[in-house]
Amino acid sequence: MSKQDVSSRQQTFSLWQLTSLITSTLIGVGVLTLPRSTSSVLFEAGWMSPVFGSVVAIISIWMIAKLSQRFPGMTFIEYSPIVWGKKNYPKIGKWLSMPWILGYLVFLYSTTAIVARIFGEVVVTSVLLDTPLEVIIISMFLLAFILCLHDVEVVARVNELLFPMILFPILFIALASFQKAEWNNILPLFRVPAKSLLQGSYEAIYSFSGYEIMLIFFAYAHENKSKVKAGFYGIGIAMIVYTLIVVAGIVVFGYEELQRVAWPTLELVKTTQVPGLILERLESAFLAVWVTAVFTTVANAYYAAMYGIRQLFNKGIVFQRVISAILFIPLYYIALWPQNIVDIFRVSSFVGILSLFLNLGIPTLYLIVILIKDFASKQKERNADG
Question: What is the CATH number of domain 3-385?
Answer without folding.
Answer: 1.20.1740.10
